[in-house]
Structure formats: C-alpha cells, structure tokens
Amino acid sequence: MIVALAGGVGGAKLARGLAEIAGTDLSVIVNTGDDFDHFGLRICPDLDTVTYTLAGKANPVTGWGLDGETWSFMAQIKALGGEDWFQLGDRDLAIHVLRSQWLGRGASLTDVTAKITAALGVKAAVLPMSDAPVRTRVQTASGLLDFQDYFVRLKCDVSITGLRFDGAAEAGPTEAVEHALDDAEMMIFCPSNPFVSIDPILAITDIHRRLKATRVPRVAVSPIIGGKAVKGPAAKMMAELGYQVSSLTVAEKYRGLIDGMVIDVVDGDLEGDIRALGMAVKTTRTLMVNAEDSARLAAETVEFARKLGGR
Amino acid sequence: MIVALAGGVGGAKLARGLAEIAGTDLSVIVNTGDDFDHFGLRICPDLDTVTYTLAGKANPVTGWGLDGETWSFMAQIKALGGEDWFQLGDRDLAIHVLRSQWLGRGASLTDVTAKITAALGVKAAVLPMSDAPVRTRVQTASGLLDFQDYFVRLKCDVSITGLRFDGAAEAGPTEAVEHALDDAEMMIFCPSNPFVSIDPILAITDIHRRLKATRVPRVAVSPIIGGKAVKGPAAKMMAELGYQVSSLTVAEKYRGLIDGMVIDVVDGDLEGDIRALGMAVKTTRTLMVNAEDSARLAAETVEFARKLGGR
C-alpha cells in the first residue's frame, strides 16, 4: 500500500502516476483545508482535482475542473446578478450538488467521496484528511481571509504574513486515513504547496504523529523547480513568509517527517545542503506536463522510497 | 392594473399576451403549491415558467424550461448515481441556486422573484401567491403523494381521489398580492389547471375573500377545449374526481368568483348551460400555439372583461 499526501493540481498529477503503479493499493490523503461553502453547496477543490485527475477526466489545460466542460450555469448566474468569482462548470456542479445532498442526509465526507470516486471508476482510495471541518485562513497585514477569498477572488494578489488551519486541532483523521497510514509500505508527499496543501494535513495531530513515528520510508517530491513553483502561489508564499524560494526550504520544512527528497535536476546544486539535513536526495526531471511524465516520476519516486526502505 | 391568476404553461402563455397589452400594469399571481425542495434547492416550477415565458426565454417546444438549454449537469448527476427523475437544465439551475441562496439569507420569495424577473427584463410583476409554504399533495387509493412525485416522477400515471394544499389555511397572501388585488381593474383566471394551479391560489383564504368581494370584472379562460386539456393532467383529474370533462365543469367550479367565461368555439354548445350559472360567455379560439395567439386571446379576454365592467 502506497500512501500519498496531496493537495490540488501538482499532487493530483503525481497521484495519477502512482495509481498506474499501485492500482487499488494506493490511498491518497487529500487536503480539505480549501473546502468552503458557496451557493449553499460544499465545494472541495482538492478532493475534486484528485478525483477528476485519477479518473482521467481533468481539464488538461487548467489541471482542475472537467475536460470538455460547459459553462451555461455560470453565464446564467451572471445574467441573474449572482456571484461569479468562483467558476463552477455545468458538469462539475453535479459533484457539489450530490455531495451537499448526501452530506445533508448524514453521510461522511469520506463516504461521499468513496461513492463519487467509485462512480467515476477511480481505483485508488481518495481519502479526505478528516471528516471534520478544517478551514485554511490566510493572515495578511489587513486582516484574515478565507482561503478561497485569497486564492480565487483576490487571485493571491495580497501579501501574506501567516496561515491558520481553523479546526485542525480538534479534527481527528478518519478511520480510513488511520488504516491507510497503518498499512502503508511507503508514504509520499506529493509536489503540492507545502503551506496550504500539505501543512493542513500535517496540522491534524494524529496524522503528524503517525508520519513521524512510522518505520516505512517517507519521501517528498519538491514542488519548487529552479526557485519557482510550477503552479499556484507556493513560491510567492515562501518569499512573503521570509524563506528562500528553494527545494532546500521544502526539505527543511519536512525535516523529521521524511527520509528522502526528490528534486529537479536543475536544483542539483542543493543536493549537498539537503543531505546535510539528514535525508537522501534523488534528482530527476520533476516537471509533469503529461501522463507519461507523471508515470515516470511516480515510478522513480517509488523506486527511491523502496531503496530507502531498509533504514 | 390587470391581475391574472396563473399556474404553469397555459397560464404563462396567456400572461405573455396580457403583458403585451398592460406592460408594467400587469400583476400575475402565481401558484406556489408545486414548489418543492430537490438537491437542497428550492424549485418553483410555476413561478419559473411564468418568468421565462414573460421574458421571452421559455422553451417553445416544452413550454417550460429555457430555450436553447444545455444538459451537462443532469448527465453528470446520472453518471454519479444521483436522482435524475426531475430534469434541471444547466442554465435553469442558476435560478434555483440563487433563489435558494437568497432565501437562505432571509429574503422573501416575493423579493427573490422580483430580483430575478428584473434581471431577466420582465416588466410585469410576478407575484408568488404567498411567501409561506403551501404544498399541494395528491390523494390516491394507495396514499398521499407529494405533487412532483405524482406529476413528474410518476408522470400522473396514478388515479387521484382528491387534493390537499398543506399550509394554505395558515398562509396569508403577500402584501404585494393584496395591493395588486386592491388596485385591479379586472381579474383574469388564466387557462391553468383548475385543480392544481388555480385551486391552491384560491385556498389562501384572504385571496378567495377578495376575489369574491371585488366589484371589478372577473373572467376565466377555460383550459378545456372539446373535452380535452391542452396540456397536463387537468382532463384526467376532472374525470377521476367524478366530473364531466368540460368547460362547464370549470365554470361550475369558479361560480361565485367569476363574471364571465371565455371558452373555445368548439365548445359553443355549452354557452347556454354556462350562462345559466349566472355568468357571461365569450367563445373564441383559445388554443395558444404561438405568441400571436397569446396576444389575440389576451386582447379578446381583456375586451370581454371591460364590457362586463359595468355590472
């Protein structure tokens, strides 16, 4: 059993490669700190990106949303004077509506996600990190912002001073997450944003504890390539929070929780500094443009972890 | 000010003709007994049919829903294993989502409807009969059914023994409805189903009282032509409830509330029997196939009502 920790687009891409290797023997523990309620619907951006990507149905251009989506709903929302800052495609909407309906009837987010992934033919287990609400909030000089306000409405165009994961202290992992972590042969930190995709997962005390205590190899794939994030605000956040924008910063952040880092060949000069933190390093091409890239990077990451297994 | 009472498709068609004559001086009091909650959304079929028709955006084939609609949402709902017995178009969905959001924030159904109709360029006032919930329930030999279960899910394919309008006794009319009735120069019963479109409106005690007491002319356009309903289960219900399927039955049903009936030329033989009930009769072509038909029938109905005005 491979266990992966993932947020949105970048994490989903590696998860897709891992799914090709592991089939049903993959559990992806997904960040739910981005989840929010909009139009009375529960929106879970990272769960959906992972689900759509594993189902082979993600929009290949954006990385999120469904391929071949239509936008009649949003056009009419706009015509009727509704809020149109958060784009909801016509087909994508079905997942939010059904999830909200099923949650309203008492199903857990884990059960709802299992039902949706099964319907979409996803073999891997897509596991919300918790069934309890955890909400990422962004601290700025002018106050606290809900994550989607920051991320989508403001397009990250404000400087952050910190992050909060409201509810994380009280939120336990689900049984499914506990079992996945107990059964794991290796744990892989996908190349997701360390601050807003992986940190919320690590903020769940019991997940953090199990990751720290496990004897199986733990490997992180860096989301930073040559001082830049492939997608999203990871690099911008890193700089604003006073860190060097570098895979070394990622390694330092995960220190004590991982045994090895996969970094891009362009960052080969960091190898020594990262090894000095007490972890192994593998350099390879980490940019995932297509499914083949994902498959190759996943295979190399799994092989790297296997080699570390004997520690 | 013309006040019309209307349900769905047939009523909406006449209302569109009345709107051409009256412009902003038309208030359409609309049945909300068909309203229901589905996927956590408030669906108001008759309000929406009237709104879309007055906006010139109704699907000309079905009479309900939006012209040029797309169906991505429903296709995905089905793929995910959701309920697909009630069709919700992608653009149509926007009205339900916004209405539910605005109602959830404390707006009244009247306010929400005003906002939506304004956005769609509707000049007439589209008035829910009440802001309080009234729910039509269908009595059958095998028990009580919610209206949409009967109407859409079972396609009316069950014999009815009676109808109930739960909540009607407690539901008052809105202020907007009261003002419209107070200011009316004439009141027109659109050719909607008397049992499930007009009766729920009449079940609101104060509306019934004002209709009965008014001194302005009140005219009904029969939805029955040659012993058949143009659309929907009106004729079937009439037969199952033990009535003759005829415009005479409609006239008897509205007796005491109307001063005149508009019936189709094919039902000219009923004229004497309807006059014997103490009301005037106008015969004309009442089938509305296109906007021209609606405009002509509306003009003739208004003229007929004006002539009765001197009683």
What features would you highlight for this structure?
3-stranded antiparallel beta sheet; 41% helix; 7-stranded parallel beta sheet; alpha/beta; 311 residues; 2 domains; homodimer
How is this fold's topology laid out?
Two copies of one chain form a homodimer.
Chain A: E1 2-6, H1 9-22, E2 26-30, E3 36-38, E4 41-43, H2 45-54, H3 72-79, H4 92-104, H5 109-119, E5 125-128, E6 135-140, E7 143-146, H6 147-153, E8 160-166, H7 175-183, E9 186-189, H8 194-202, H9 205-213, E10 218-221, E11 224-225, E12 228-229, H10 234-240, H11 247-254, E13 260-264, H12 271-275, E14 280-284, H13 291-308
Parallel strand pairs in A: 1-2, 1-9, 2-5, 9-10, 10-13, 13-14
Antiparallel strand pairs in A: 3-4, 6-7, 6-8, 11-12
Helix pairs in contact in A: 1-2, 1-13, 4-5
Describe the structure.
Two copies of one chain form a homodimer. In chain A, helix 1 packs parallel to helix 2, helix 1 packs across helix 13 (about 290-310) and helix 4 runs antiparallel to helix 5 (about 110-120). The model of chain A has no long low-confidence stretch (mean pLDDT about 95). In chain A, a hairpin with a 2-residue loop joins strand 6 (about 135-140) and strand 7. Chain A has helices spanning about 10-20, 45-55, 70-80, 90-105, 110-120, 145-155, 175-185, 195-200, 205-215, 235-240, 245-255, 270-275, 290-310; strands spanning about 1-5, 25-30, 35-40, 40-45, 125-130, 135-140, 145, 160-165, 185-190, 220, 225, 230, 260-265, 280-285. Chain A has 13 helices and 14 strands. The two termini of chain A are about 20 Å apart. Chain A is about 40% helix and about 20% strand. Chain A folds into two domains: about 1-135 and about 170-310, Rossmann fold (3-Layer(aba) Sandwich); about 135-165, no CATH class. Chain A is of the alpha/beta class. In chain A, strands 5-2-1-9-10-13-14 form a seven-stranded parallel sheet, sandwiched between helices. Chain A has a three-stranded antiparallel sheet with strand order 7-6-8. At the A-B interface, helix 3, helix 4 and helix 5 of A face helix 3, helix 4 and helix 5 of B.
